[in-house]
Amino acid sequence: MEATQYDKYACFCKEQADDKLYSIEKYTKEIELLTAQVGALDSEIAEKELVLQGKTTEKENTVGTIATMNTNRASDHETYLKHADDINAAVDAVGRALAWLKQQKTGVAEHISLSAVPGFAQLRAHASTLMSAGSLSQPLRSAISSLEQQDPVKYQFHSDAVIRTLEELQVSFKEHAQSLLTDEDSKQNDHDVEVVALQGHIRVLTDAIADLNKRL
Fold first, then answer.
1. Percentage of residues in the chain having pLDDT higher than 90
2. Which domain of life does the protein's organism represent (predicted)?
């Protein structure tokens, strides 16, 4: 009787042990699986955080690039405005000199001193500024140099020669002013196109960053 009860108890204990061993093995495998899944998720999160950091840095750099471009463009435009002002002032000075010379054609004197021509001193000053800045074409530099080499006090120019030279200068100055304007418009357009493209890239990066943040 006791032996029978012992056998039953032993059988019961073995079944319990087997069940517990099975449960341990089962849950151990589940833990290993979950641990692997957690590891994979951690790796995925780390990868996404790295991508997020990269896109955030790229966005910041792009914003900085636009700021630098805008600063440089503003500086270049300021330089253009200064050159344009000098050229317009030179055109005005040439116009005043021509008007005065043509009035003298009925003239009192066949020869005139350059120092006596209204606007000539201003023309020399503005031309000198433009030449120093390297903002004049070769024909303009040559024409101005021919006048710069003359002594405005001692040298007596025939008025017809002065008029011809100044008329050529007037045309050249106006053409140069238009050339500078065309070049400035082209540079501004190129700048605007590039900035718009970079701003579009920033919007793409912003959307990507927002999406990554949602998934983290």
1. 29
2. Eukaryota
